[in-house]
Amino acid sequence: MIDERRSLWERIRGHVLVFDGPLMFSLALLVALSLVTMYSAALDYDGRLQDHVRNLLIAFAIMWIAANLPLQWVQRTAVPVYLLGIALLVGVALFGDISKGARRWLDLGVTRIQPSELMKIAMPLMIAWYFQRREGARTWADFAIAAALLALPVWLIARQPDLGTALLVTAAGLYAIFLAGLSWKLIAGGLVAGIAALPVLWSVLHDYQRHRVLMMIDPSSDPLGKGFHVIQSTIAVGSGGIWGKGWTEGTQAHLEFIPERTTDFVFAVFSEEFGLIGNSVLLLVYLLLIGRGLVIAANGANIFARLLAGSITLIFFTYAFVNIGMVSGILPVVGVPLPLMSYGGTAMVTLGLGAGLLMAISRQRKLMQT
Amino acid sequence: MVEVRDTERDLYQLRLRLVIAMTLVLVCFGVLVARFVYLQVYRYDDFHAQAEDNRIALVPAPPGRGLIFDRNGVLLAENVSAYTLEIAPKRAARLEETIAALSGIVEITARDRQRFRRLLEDSRSTDSVPLKVRLTDEEVARLAVQRFRFPGVEIRARLFRNYPLGETAAHVIGHIGRISQEDKRRLEEQERLSAYAGSTHIGKVGVELSYESLLHGQVGAEEVEVSAGGRIVRTLSRQPPVPGANLVLSIDVRLQKLAEELYGDRRGALVAIEPTTGDVLAHVSRPSFDPNLFVDGIDSQTWQSLNEDPDKPLLNRPLRGAYPPGSTYKPFMALAALTTGARTPQDTISDPGYFQLGNHRFRDSKPSGHGTVDLRKSIVVSSDTYYYKVAYDMGVDRIHDFMKPWGFGQLTGIDLEHESAGILPSTQWKLKRFKQKWYPGETPSIGIGQGYNAFTMLQLAHATATLANDGIVMKPHVVQSIEDPVTHARKRTVPKESYRIPLRREYLDLVRGAMADVNRFGTGRIAFANTEYVAAGKTGTAQVIGIKQGERYDARRIAERHRDHSLFMAFAPLENPKIAIALVVENGGFGAQAAAPIARKLFDYHLLGKLPKDVSEDLLPRLLDEAELRDVPESVEPEQVGEPEAPR
Q1: In order of start, what are the domains of chain B with their CATH numbers?
Q2: Residue A238 and residue B48: Cβ atoms within 8 Å?
Q3: What pLDDT is recorded for position B637?
Q4: pLDDT at residue number B324
Q5: Do residues B285 and B311 lie in contact, with contact meaning Cβ atoms separated by under 8 Å?
Q6: What is the secondary structure of B482-535 as a DSSP string?
Q7: B623 CB near a chain A CB, below 8 Å?
Q8: Which residues does B40 contact at the CB level (< 8 Å), separation at least 6?
Q9: If you average pLDDT over every residue of chain A, what do you get?
């Protein structure tokens, strides 16, 4: 009896203890901050806090499942997932729902999904897979092919139009390519070409996108229109001061001066109520998370694992940086949520999947060492 | 081996790149921290202030306007609560469609629309503009049910200024009106604009204008917390408004009303003054108008008809209408002649019916002349020849210098705006006005109150009051006292005497006695037959058009508007005078015919309480009894229906 019970534990413990300790610790801190902030931000939204908790639980479940996946299996799914993503993006282009002037959603009858979100994971997965295949025999042509693999979905997303996601997917692919060892000459060349392409990019931007960029440079040019978001969130952050106004005491947040205060602008609520001290704590937690992710990447079992872990971690960083930069008025307003803090189901699923894959990579390494 | 080394090199390169990436992360987070320090420490005060500014709005609480009473406590201007239908043009979707739809619910007349358009042009863009005022209860009910269909349309309970006596004393009381762009500019110049936050109306004419700052009161403020959408979350602090002061006029509105009745349809001006105080007892301008029309914006048709009426009902005649005084000037000329030594009481002339100057003949109104005339007789029979000569002997400048202290051709300084000065001619005046020297031939007419002389009835009444008051000049005023709206403590506005004109008692008695004889034996004897008191007076007739040399004035042959003005000045009783009057009946003919009887009836009422037979007691405003006097309505704060909206 005792033996059987032990053997049952022996059998499941491999699946239960899949979590990376330091990663789990920083995630738990983030979830705690998230719940405290959402409680305040969602005071006037019935049921939003419950929904947020539900999303967190779903993300946790996804993370747990992803953490249990064998890495070889993940590696094998890279190509099919990528192709599925491309197919869905083409589907969106042909049959997608239009919302707020952009074609981003695909109605599957059961639920509506945003395929561009999937590409944030599928993209580094595909590039990591490709460089794993070309291990030891990499030439400059491989980087060209990787760039082509990246360009196709980015183009499909950019024409939805969804500039924010297109940039994030680009970033995800570029991180993988950068970590794979893209020569510095090409990086320098790419930067120069990128800067040179800015006027071209400007000419293809939609009016509302140009508006947002201009707004960031001078929000006061349209204080009641588009600039209102940034002006009011900057006031919220600034008026928080060093110690903050106190939990649920944010006037900007609770008098409806911050639009989207549970989603993209949740950081304004956090910052107003907890001040510079709170901001520093939040950045430290993010830093812990990112640092641990990069350590996992450095110790990855193979090229695929290392590139995937590095890219996922850096996407995570990009989310946090772009969102906080946007809310505090140093980056343009693009629809990027703050990881784990913002309300929103799709992003939460992506984040859970990313964190799960990081843990799978971490576990693989441990398995190899034992 | 090569492959292993490659793998190791790859791993090393990757780790190097991860370190570079971590460095990038640290740099980026460093930028964020720098931004936080900038926003939350360096510019904290600025953003804190902005957040407070967002949060807190000041909602002005307009004060209740002071009430106006006559000297006996009769209410002349009050605030009545009534509902209005208002549109905030900024928030209303399509103005024309909204109005069209609203007219399906309540009747909106063409005049309402015209007035609305006028007000719209003249109002601040954020104001809500009344479309229909003083709604009935039934209309309010119907509108309230449908209101949700019309964004920007509001039903508000507002306080309306109401002038219960309508036309009576309209030129004294004046009226308020909606604050125009021009008013706003003026307030801005006076740095009083902030006192009008939340106020919609301002005094436009009359006492409502001249005592505006007292009547208006002080604006209060409510500090409220508002949401971004302008919803008021809670009140943080409240400073109540201070209601405006009540005014008690020196006007006896019953006397005023009686005078207006006595005028009937005739045009003219009348001022009655209490000589010892300068209290203006009546200030009549005929025809008059209903000030209630102006309170919430007048429609253009009514405005046009009032403005273009040849009878000029909007003109404040006693204040701004300058008339030649005619023979009513003679008592003052007599005093001038005596005081300057140009004549003694005993000096006589032989009046042949004209005064010859060179080859020009100045005719007397009595062609055959008055025979031997001394100073007393010159007033009683109204000898023109006597005064042609006096004037000619004195010269225009000596007359001017004597008359100036009496207030002729000068602003009396009454507490009403836009007073006219009239004309008291002198050589200097003529030089300035016409760039011409004074011709001696122009002087004789001055002596009989013609020529360039042009005075307001206020000036003539004021001078008459000064004559009655032994030359002690009291500044005329229409507001007697100012009442604190809370404590009801009254403060009299009546000033001390302005100055004294040095006059010899015997000359004063002589002239005033002659004026009493005018009403006993002279031109006023019919009007003043059988008085129970002694009234001193002087009739006057002022030419409207010149009559050619050798031609005779014939009232029947002349168009009504070219007939002479009928004037009268008087005071009573002779000893200790209580009332001094000057009046003109435009185109009324001889002073004795039209003007004098009005003065007689007013004296009878004021001194004896006697009403003329054809005027019933019901016609006059009712005096309040003691109980009612204590129960006068107080200034109240305006209330609003529904949730007030904070300014963003």
Answers
A1: 59-249 (3.90.1310.10), 253-297+309-479+492-613 (3.40.710.10)
A2: yes
A3: 44
A4: 93
A5: no
A6: EE-TTT--EEE-PPPP-EE----HHHHHHHHHHHHHHHHTSTTTTTTTT-SS--
A7: no
A8: A237, A238, A240, A241, A242, A271, A275, A276, A279, B47
A9: 86
Residues B329/B448, Cβ–Cβ less than 8 Å: yes
> So what's the pLDDT on residue B152?
76
Domain assignment of residue A345, yes or no: yes
Q: Count, in order, helices (H) and strands (E) of chain B.
A: 23, 25
Q: How far apart are CA B280 and CA B255, in angstroms?
A: 11
CB distance A209 to A202 below 8 Å: no
Determine how many CB atoms are found less than 10 A away from the CB of residue B28.
17
**DSSP letter string over B188-234?**
HHTT-GGGGTT--EEEEEHHHHHTHHHHH-B-EEEEEEE-TTS-EEE
Rounded-to-integer distance, Cα B444 and Cα B343, Å: 15
Residue A185 belongs to some domain of the structure? yes
Those residues with Cβ within 8 angstroms of residue B621's Cβ, 6 or more apart along the chain or in another chain: B70, B74, B165, B168, B253, B254, B257
The catalytic residues of B are 327
In this predicted model, what pLDDT tens digit does every residue of B286-305 receive, in sequence order?
A: 999 999 988 877 877 888 88
**Residue B6 forms contact with A (CB below 8 Å):** yes
What φ, ψ does residue B22 adopt, rounded to 5°?
A: -60, -40
CB-based contact (8 Å) between B29 and chain A? yes
Query: What is the token pair recorded at B636?
Result: 């109240």
This model of the complex carries an ipTM of: 0.92
The helix (run of H) or strand (run of E) holding residue B619 is none
Q: What would the mean pLDDT of A31-55 be, rounded to a whole number?
A: 92
Residue type present at position B645: E
Spatial separation of the C-alpha atoms in residues B331 and B61, rounded to whole Å: 56
Q: CB-CB: which of A275, A276, A291 is closest to B22?
A: A291
Surface of B (62-121) touching A: CB under 8 A: none
Domain that holds residue A45: 21-369
Question: Is the pTM here over 0.90, yes or no?
Answer: no
Contacts of B30 (CB under 8 A, 6+ apart): none
- Phi-psi sector, B286: left (phi>0), alpha (psi -120 to 50), beta: beta
End-to-end CA distance of chain A: 29
B576-585 pLDDT per residue, tens: 999 999 999 9
pLDDT in tens, A190-248: 888 888 888 887 777 777 777 766 765 666 666 555 577 888 899 999 999 999 999 99
| B170, containing H or E segment | helix B170-173
Phi, psi angle pair for B238, to nearest 5°: -145, 125
Q: Which two tokens stand for residue B426?
A: 């002198």
Name the DSSP letter for residue A340. Answer: T
* Number of domains observed in the structure of chain A: 1
Q: B47–A237: do the CB atoms touch at under 8 Å? A: yes
Q: How far apart are the C-alpha atoms of A306 and A295, rounded to whole Å?
A: 10
DSSP string of A50-80, one letter each residue: HHHHHHHHHHHHHHHHHHHS-HHHHHHHHHH
Q: Which two tokens stand for residue B421?
A: 């000065």
* d(C-alpha B508, C-alpha B505), whole Å: 5
Q: How far is B191 from chain A (nearest CA, A)?
A: 29
Any domain includes A3: no
The amino acid occupying position A159 is: R
Neighbours of A17 (CB within 10 A): 10
Facing B47 at nearest CB: one of A239, A257, A283: A239
Residue A16 lies in a domain: no
Please list the rounded mean pLDDT of every run of 10 residues in chain B (648 residues): 63 90 95 95 93 84 90 90 81 76 84 81 69 84 79 79 92 90 87 82 92 90 79 82 92 94 92 94 94 84 87 92 93 94 91 88 87 92 93 94 95 92 93 91 92 94 95 94 89 81 93 94 90 93 65 62 88 94 89 88 93 84 64 45 38
